[in-house]
Automatic annotation (TrEMBL):
PROSITE patterns noted in UniProt: CN_HYDROLASE
Domain CN hydrolase: start-end pairs: 14-288
Signal peptide: 1-19
Protein name: CN hydrolase domain-containing protein
Annotated Basic and acidic residues bias: 547-559
Length: 581
């Protein structure tokens, strides 16, 4: 390690003044590290110091490290933000009071004049802790972000609220949000990994704190077809319209990878989703107003999809509770409904000509309005309208990837439109956070989302229901999924929906019919008190049926499914007009 130290010393000596962002700048420079960590705190710490220096040399104002890639297990760190740090806030200047990790990172932040966000396993001993909330006299372990400013001062500490298993650790004892303000005029919120999927903190930091910039250390376990790492990172930045700095732990064997810097509706300024063990520093200039990109950012870094043969991907267990319909080549146009979720699909697809005798993906249109499990760690309310790839004809093959990537095994979509009518999100006064969120999510064979220019997404609010439309604009994409995927937080913690009975294997057309019946039946059962409304709607939508007939007499038309209890006449018309577009 002599070599490393020597290099570090040398670079300090030749270091020239760095340019930093100021309150009047329209942008700042951010760095995030995709990090293939070592099982050794000292080695990780040495690497961190090198990347802090490298980020600074690229004029970064802030660097974000991933979740739990520094210390683990026996090496937990105290962060006495209400104790010693009150009097001695710069660990670099009070080395005897703090763990070496805090001292060295503080020193590197000072030397390089850069904000640093690290994530560590924190230990708190309530027998000695000063100024801390301690419900029990015991030792606690937390999953914690620690923020250093350019002087090496520790300015914030945030403890993860939504643990993903992590049985040795305790969730934050109180749901305190992570937030800090910088000398370049940007206020950042920060949270950790699984937190992204919950109202507190992921909605609350934006709705209550009104921040436009969010920091996200993560060790994500990517899941098909909706929740792979970069896919949901970009989806969050887009839907919440924030800048999002995501640093991912890289451990492809267990499915962890994926980092990026995203800017609202402009998508990824830079992003990476490695299929192979990778450490990579991503740096980008971030506009202070999300989405207002003026420079030309590096953009997504696409790996060869063959590399993703090595990336473990799990499958959303709720897919088997989705009502689905197998898509056949050619044009199909239909509506699927589950409770208050109405999905209108228009799909024109052809199967790609496989180069060799390879299997190709089948696709299903799906609707789900229920509760899912996250790998048994928690449950959450979900609303979705989607088209997803499957490796076979039955539902249990969906959300999976063939073990070996082959070119042209996906379908070609000449047209792919989804129009979803969903209840409009409402801010809950008590916690000042929206009760629902819908994300445009997509996934291609490089386990990356479509870029914003590849599709058109819009929302049309009509009182308590909103119509979200998502139209594919690029037809050369190899797609695993295309979805409007929502979280309905009021259903969190409820029991997950059961799997639907496996369909019998029939010819595609008959299977489709069978499927549709299930949807209708479910509909009848859950909406008995809505019967009156349904009657009314029947009449108003009759002429809509004609429109559909005209539009397309080549596909079988779903006679009753377009009639719904919730949907108003206006929305139906809007929906169909969008569809005709
Ligand atoms: C990490 O290191 C610890 C202690 O040296 C050892 O017990 C553990 O097996 C190691 N884990 C891995 C994944 O190498
Ligand atoms: C929230 O931020 C916006 C600009 O980003 C500002 O116009 C608005 O006044 C802020 N609202 C509150 C409550 O701080
Ligand atoms: C489906 O797309 C193909 C290829 O663009 C086109 O030739 C065909 O006319 C389309 N079918 C319909 C019914 O629009
Ligand atoms: C929307 O409002 C209408 C009329 O006020 C009501 O009948 C309906 O139940 C509401 N729907 C939802 C999802 O809140
Ligand atoms: C609908 O209700 C009927 C009668 O209550 C029941 O037999 C049937 O299994 C239910 N179907 C579904 C999909 O829940
Ligand atoms: C709707 O149709 C039903 C029977 O088809 C009829 O009884 C009812 O009067 C109609 N309502 C309207 C508003 O046209
Ligand atoms: C579509 O409908 C028209 C008029 O009803 C008919 O002449 C034509 O053959 C139909 N096309 C197909 C493909 O069924």
């Amino acid at each position: 390690m002599f070599c490393t130290k020597f290099l570090l010393l040398l670079t300090y000596l030749i270091k020239i003044t760095v340019q930093t962002s100021s309150p009047s700048s329209t942008s700042y420079v951010a760095a995030v590290l995709e990090y293939n960590f070592e099982n050794d705190t000292a080695a990780n710490l040495r690497n961190y110091l090198i990347y802090i220096q490298e980020a600074s040399s690229k004029n970064a104002d802030i660097i974000v490290f991933p979740e739990l890639t520094l210390n683990r297990g026996q090496d937990s760190i105290e962060v006495p933000i209400n104790g010693a740090l009150k009097d001695h806030p710069i660990p670099a200047l009070a080395a005897d009071l703090y763990h070496k990790v805090l001292v060295d990172i503080s020193n590197a932040a000072r030397q390089n004049k850069i904000y640093v966000v690290i994530n560590i396993e924190e230990i708190m001993d309530c027998n000695t802790a000063v100024g801390e909330y301690c419900p029990a006299q015991q030792t606690y372990l937390f999953n914690t972000n620690v923020v250093f400013d350019r002087d090496g001062t520790i300015i914030d500490r945030y403890r993860k609220i939504n643990l993903f298993g992590e049985f040795t650790r305790t969730p934050a004892l109180r749901p305190d949000l992570g937030v800090f303000t910088t000398d370049f005029g940007v206020t950042f919120a920060h949270y950790i990994c699984f937190d992204l999927l919950f109202q507190v903190p992921a909605m609350q930091v934006v709705d209550k704190l009104n921040v436009t910039d969010v920091i996200f250390p993560t060790m994500w376990f990517s899941e098909m077809p909706y929740l792979s790492a970069v896919q949901i990172q970009e989806g969050y930045a887009f839907a919440m319209d924030v800048n999002f700095l995501a640093a991912g732990s890289n451990n492809v064997r267990v499915g962890s990878s994926g980092s990026g810097i995203f800017s609202g509706k402009a998508g990824a300024l830079i992003s990476t989703m490695p299929g192979l063990p990778t450490t990579k520093l991503l740096v980008a200039t971030v506009p202070k107003i999300p989405g207002q990109v003026t420079s030309s950012p590096p953009g997504p870094i696409y790996d060869n999809p063959v590399d993703h043969d090595s990336l473990t991907l799990i499958t959303d267990p709720s897919l088997e509770s989705h009502f689905t319909r197998l898509l056949t080549p050619g044009l199909s146009q239909f509506t699927m409904i589950s409770g208050e979720v109405i999905c209108v699909f228009k799909v024109n697809m052809t199967e790609n000509e496989p180069e060799t005798e390879i299997s190709s993906y089948k696709y299903r249109a799906a609707v789900f309005n229920g509760v899912r499990s996250y790998s048994g760690m928690a449950t959450g309310g979900i609303r979705v309208c989607s088209v997803i790839a499957c490796t076979g004809d039955s539902l249990d093959t969906c959300g999976k990837r063939f073990p070996q990537y082959k070119l042209k095994s996906t379908a070609v979509f000449h047209e792919l439109n989804i129009i979803a009518t969903m209840p409009t999100p409402v801010i809950e006064d008590e916690i000042q956070a929206r009760d629902t969120i819908y994300f445009p999510l997509s996934l291609d064979t490089s386990i990356m989302p479509l870029e914003p220019d590849d599709y058109t997404y819009s929302e049309d609010i009509n009182g308590n229901v909103t119509t979200y439309s998502m139209f594919l604009d690029r037809y050369d994409k190899e797609l695993y999924s295309f979805a409007i995927w929502g979280r309905i937080f009021s259903r969190d913690g409820q029991e997950e929906d059961p799997k639907l009975p496996q369909e019998t294997t029939l010819s595609p057309t008959e299977e489709t019919t069978e499927n549709q019946d299930v949807t209708t039946e479910h509909q009848d059962n859950t909406t008995e008190n809505q019967d009156d409304t349904t009657e009314h709607q029947d009449n108003t939508t009759e002429n809509q049926d004609d429109t559909t007939e005209h539009q397309d007499n080549t596909t079988e038309h779903q006679p009753d499914s377009s009639v719904t209890h919730l949907i108003s006449k206006t929305i139906l018309i809007t929906t169909f007009m969008l569809l005709i577009k």
